[in-house]
Each structure stands twice: as C-alpha cells, then as structure tokens.
Amino acid sequence: MAACSVCKTLRSSIGPRGMDKMMVSPDGDVTITNDGATILDQMMVENQVAKLLVELSKSQDDEIGDGTTGVVVMAGSLLQQAKVLLDRGLHPRRIAEGFEQACEVACAHLESISDVVDWSEDRLDTLVETAMTTLSSKIINRCHRQMAEIAVEAVMAVADLERKDVNLDLIKLQGKTGGHLEDTRLIHGVVIDKDMSHPQMAKEVRDARMAILTCPFEPPKPKTKHKIEIDSVEKYKQLQQQEQQYFHDMIKQVKDSGANLVICQWGFDDEANHLLLQSQLPAVRWVGGVELELIAIATGGRIVPRFSELTEDKLGRAGLVKEIAFGTTKDRMIVISDCVKSKTCTVLVRAGNTMMVDEAVRSIHDATCVVRNLIRDNRIVYGGGSAEIACSLKVFEQADEMVGLEQYAVRAFADALVDVPLALAENSGLDPVLTVSAVQAQQQADSNPYLGVDCMSRGTNDMKAQKVFETLKGKQQQLLLATQVVKMILKIDDVIKPSQYE
Prior knowledge:
Blueprint: H1 2-11, E1 21-24, E2 30-33, H2 36-42, H3 48-63, H4 68-87, H5 92-112, E3 115-116, H6 125-135, H7 144-158, E4 159-160, E5 165-166, E6 171-177, E7 185-187, E8 189-192, E9 204-213, H8 233-256, E10 261-264, H9 270-278, E11 283-284, H10 289-299, E12 303-304, E13 316-325, E14 332-339, E15 345-351, H11 354-376, E16 379-382, H12 386-400, H13 406-427, H14 432-446, H15 463-466, E17 469-471, H16 472-490
Parallel strand pairs: 6-15, 9-10, 9-12, 10-11
Antiparallel strand pairs: 1-2, 3-16, 4-5, 7-15, 8-14, 9-13, 13-14, 16-17
Helix pairs in contact: 1-3, 1-4, 2-3, 3-4, 3-16, 4-13, 4-16, 5-12, 5-13, 5-16, 6-7, 6-11, 7-11, 8-9, 12-13, 12-14, 13-14
C-alpha cells in the first residue's frame, strides 16, 4: 500500500498533458517538474518498501535516461493487481512466476511490433521526432522542436558512429537565467561560468594557445610550520623582491611556452593578477576540475601540474575565446569555440528564472539520453499507449493457452499494462475507460498495433502517423525493471527493524 501511494502521486504526471509537481525543500527551495526521477529523489519517503520505487526510478534514469514516471506507474499497477490476487488466496510465489512469464511474452511482442529506423548524418528526422516525443511532456514543449534539434546535434557532435556509442560526459549543459527559452543554443566547444581575472584584460583572444594549469600563481609553501622575523625595511624589501621574482619567473615560463591565455584551477592574489595584466597575458581563475578536463579534451591540450613542465606541445588551441555579457547585469561567461578537437559541446540554456532553467536542463538531458539509446539500438515502438495495449492483448492470448494458477497472474499483468494508456487518457481530459476500450477493440479488428490514445486531439489515433516514437530499449527496460521490483516486494513477508535500546 505504501508503494501504491507513491505510484498514485506520479500517475497524474505521465503523458504530454500530465500535471507538474511543486517540490518544496526544508530550506524553502522550490522545484517544479514532472520528471519522475526528480520528484522521487526529492520526496521524503520513509517507508522502506516505498524506497524500492525510488531506486527503481533511479535505475531507469541511469540506464535509459527517460521513462522514469512510466516505470513507477507500471510497478504500481502490478502491485494493485497483485493485491487483488493475494486477497483471493494466491501464493505470492505463484504471482511472481506468472508476472515473469507475462513480462517475457510482452518484451518479445515489443520486438515483433518494433520498426527499424534508418538514420544517417544527413537524415536525422527520426532522431528529432523521437526527442520531440520525450520533450512533449515537459514544461518546455512550446519549443520542443528547437530543443530536440539541439539535443540531436549535440549527440551527433560527440558520437562515435563506428562503435555506436555516445559519451554524454562530453556534452555540458550550462544554464543561465535571463532571456527566453528560444535563446538556448548549442556551442561547439566549452562554456565556463567565469570571467577574465582582471577587468582590463582582453575580452577576446583569437587563435588562442591556452596553458591549462592546476598549480597556483603564488610562491611555494613549505610543508612544515615556519616563522620569519622581519626587523628592518631592507629585509622587507628583500622579501618583497624575492616574492615578485617568483611571479616573474612563473609568468616568463608561461610566455616562453608560447601561451597567450591562462586557464587556472586555483585563484591568485591581486599582485599576481596585476603582473599578468602588465605582461598582457589574459587569465581565468577558479575553473573547476570537470571544466578543465572538458577544455583539455576540446582544445587538445594537456593539464599541467607544474610551471616547469609547461611546454608548447601541451598547450590547448582554439580559434576564439571570448567573454560574453548577459543583459545589463554583471553576469559574464567565457566561450571557447572553434576548438581543434571539437569532440565536446555545450548547450547554453536560457530561461526567465532558475526553476525554468533547471527544468529545461533536465528535459534536454532526457532528450540526449533518448537519442543516444537510438544510436545504440535503432529500433523504435510507438507511444500513446499503443505498445502497452498491443502487449496486453498478446498477453491475454497467452493466458488463454495456459493451465494452472499462473494464468491468473498473467491476466493480471495484462490488466496492469492497460493502466498506462488509462492514465494517459485521464490526464488528457478524456474518458479513460471508453477511450482505451475503443482503442483495444480497434486494434483487434484492424490488427494494427500502432493505434493508441490521441492525447493531443489531432484527429487520428494512429501513433505512426502522428510520429510519436519511443525507443524499444527504453520500453523493454520499463517492463523488466517494474517486474523485477514487484517480484522483490511480493517475496517480502515481514519487515524487521533493530530494537531501540534506551
């Protein structure tokens, strides 16, 4: 019952007409989203069995990146069906075995009704349409084609098409408040949320040769405790000259390597900053470790831990490094573009407030995950509940051929499959029972597994004509994960907590 209550919370968020949830943290931070993984991650779930559904959603997010709401709704439907069977006296083990058999039938039928899409670098329509299906249920659906095209272009920029693999770590999602969603753009390179260390430094560096450093612009500190007594002006001047000499030597080593820009992981004081300005050597400080790695990958440079190791062959190269400002605020960012090795890219997300920016970043992440899955496995099924209804009818056929108590569990699995299109119809303002029963009858009469719920009222319930695509891998993973978690919950007959001693 605890697990079912969690599923009911997410049920109203599924589909293109699903509702959003407002999550308020103990600190008062507000998050508005309909992403299942985000909602469950921020919910204060205390029941131990309900926490399994939180892990379920996280597993779907880690493996597929999308479908996190659907997998929890599916698990909740299976649990409700299992509760009815338990009340009738069926043993949990027999129910679990029946669910397992039905899941195998459903996954096999999904493969049989799937379509293989032929995409190439000059024909990316299917990838865009699949990403649009994912984004249609998000807050940013008013410009979902633009976002889908950005997601596809970003994935194709970093994809290894020979191995059919995509490293999503090379795609950085950078959000910035201000502007409109339509201002979101893809930059082939790296964007870092920093500015030049001195306001008088050059704001634009062409043909940049970057020294990427993890060593600070300051004199070395001894590892042991020390104390210096200065009792005269001469000693103070001598110390000051020696410290300046350190700075001059460091800057000379950078200049001798041929660098005309410094990217440093650490900060440096005003004196070092002033000397860098005098030497006409622009610098960016306090750059994070992950961003340093992306810069090194994009520019073909090496991260240097000591000034003495800095040589010309370790410099990163880019066509343009530019500091850009946003509106009338003091917000500035560094854009590194025209890189030698542009195997990295950044999606600069713009929106009116922080909540919209965060939700747009989550949505584009889901879209990039879906495109990656389609590159790995180019088979698709059709959305709108059509795949679930087709699998439900197939599982019912299989149950009619079975003998034994497992057939009741198999039929219950078929009923649970129909709960997803029922939720889609309900969230779209349609009569759920009439709509889904009509689609079931039409699928059986026409033998067309592509008929689903017309959530957007486009006049046809043929999801192939509407181009509502979902990846086969993601849909199969939903069924497998939901079945595994329900089997685990069914096999639990007691919850034992350690005794509390005062």
